Amino acid sequence: MSGPEIEAMFSHPLKIAHCLPDQGWVEEMRDDPKDAAHIQQKYIAEGLRERRHSIAYVAPLGLDQMALTVDGAETVLAPQTWTMSWWFSLLSKIIWKIQQVLHIPYLNYFSNIHYSNACLQILAGYDIAFERNSLYNNGVAMACKKLGLPYVMFFDADQLAELEFMGVPLPGLLRWRARNLLRYNLKAARRIICVSEIAKKHLMMNWNVPPDKLVILSNAVNVQRFSPNPDLGAQTRASLQLEENPLVVFVGSFYKWHDVVTLLNAFAVVLKTHANARLMLVGDGTERKKMIDLSMEMGIDHAVQFTGFVTHKGISRYVNAADIAVVPVPKMKKEMWHSPMKLFEYMASGKAIAATAMGQIKDVIRDGDNGLLVPAGDDEALADAIISLIEDVPLRTRLGEQARIDAVKNHSWEQYLHSIENVFIDATTLVGEINLNMSPEYE
């Protein structure tokens, strides 16, 4: 396709089916989302709408329905044809009964046939289908393949590997099924958006995905919402009675890979020389109660505050109140593919950052220029970084100012949306090219 033809496509809004893991995601994105994954998808959808594209949310509703929500209007059920027949319903019940007798888990075979049939009825006429990777679903990819509709996958995590890291790996048949569905979706995709270079390498090395399918788009930040605001910071500090205290802030969902344990150990060291320092942990998650208990066992709970859940709109007040923001990551056998949204929000807010030199973090933070980097799992090194930022105000100011410059220049949502538009346009030009250069394992 020539340059003028591509420019012409940009001048006409795209009709995009934004496919999500389930209807709960749609409801979450209508409100103020609670976690980075939902926030990310909401920003993408709203940003593309603002750029005149039409966005329809497509998501499973239960085990046999697909729901459609077009440009924020009322949600409706997608029609189906033969998958709603009596014989298909009877067949699925018989097979499920046999699986129960044989102690075979539910494997989503019939659900995905329902989803695919529903998508065949509603996706015709769309320019592109954009789906966030999720376990067990391949109905959208199947429908796109039959319709010849460009299918773009958003890959921000390998959930199979994450479950293993968290100590709850999928067993036997469920793992086999999930792997097969992911492999199908990866093959069907014309383009796959990866959140980091590590995610791209993971797909190439572990899933044999051709590199020319993969596009890296790291997370981004709303540089208007997250910006230096001394007045807001002062008001927040006053409300917390922390006007004079050096304040360190962590924002996160308390997953194991957020390494709050190392942060608490490091902060205990900080308190030995800066007894008036305070640590604010913003957010909620499965590990938060354990971290509260740990801070009490360590005897530092008087200097540590856990806010609990805070809406995304509310996070900026805590970040603005901080002197220092931290991104700890534990030692791992292999680097994770994450693109931490909080890192870019800290940067856009002009904060001095102490972060672990792992994954995408070490590609974004230049040690001594726009932040400080420390080794993974090293509480002494993290403590030293925090202490140096408490004691050296000019350093703290310089790092924060440069971080803000870099966020605006390289990580704004405006730039991200322009890039994702390019990916979509690129995907629509690849008709007939999807199966080129695939390795035998990938096929």
Which features characterize this protein?
443 residues; alpha/beta; Rossmann fold; eight-stranded mixed sheet; six-stranded parallel sheet; 18 helices; 14 strands; 47% helix; globular; disordered C terminus
Question: How do you describe this structure in short?
Answer:
The chain is of the alpha/beta class and 443 residues long. The chain has helices spanning 3-10, 23-30, 36-50, 86-101, 109-122, 139-147, 159-165, 172-188, 197-207, 230-239, 260-273, 288-298, 312-321, 341-348, 361-364, 379-391, 393-410, 413-428; strands spanning 15-19, 54-61, 65-70, 76-77, 128-132, 151-155, 191-194, 214-216, 247-251, 278-282, 304-308, 324-327, 352-356, 372-374.
What does this entry look like structurally?
- The protein is an alpha/beta fold and 443 residues long.
- The protein has two domains: 234 residues, Glycogen Phosphorylase B (Rossmann fold, 3-Layer(aba) Sandwich); 181 residues, Glycogen Phosphorylase B (Rossmann fold), CATH 3.40.50.2000.
- Helix content is 47%, strand content 15%.
- It has 18 helices and 14 strands.
- Strand 10, helix 12 and strand 11 form a beta-alpha-beta unit.
- Helix 2 packs across helix 3 and helix 14 packs across helix 17.
The major sheet is characterized as: 8 strands, mixed
CATH fold label of the largest domain: Rossmann fold
Number of domains: 2
Report how far the terminal alpha carbons are from each other. Answer: 27 Å
Helical content class: 40-55%
CATH class (first level) name of the largest domain: Alpha Beta
Number of strands: 14
> Which structural class best describes the helix and strand composition?
alpha/beta
> What is the second-level CATH architecture of the largest domain?
3-Layer(aba) Sandwich
User: DSSP helix count?
Assistant: 18
What shape does the CA trace take? globular
What is the C-alpha radius of gyration, as a whole number of Å? 24 Å
Mean pLDDT: 90
Spans of at least 5 consecutive residues whose pLDDT stays below 50 are 431-443
The share of residues in extended strands comes to: 5-15%
CATH superfamily of the largest domain: Glycogen Phosphorylase B
Give the spatial strand order of the biggest sheet.
4-3-2-1-5-6-7-8
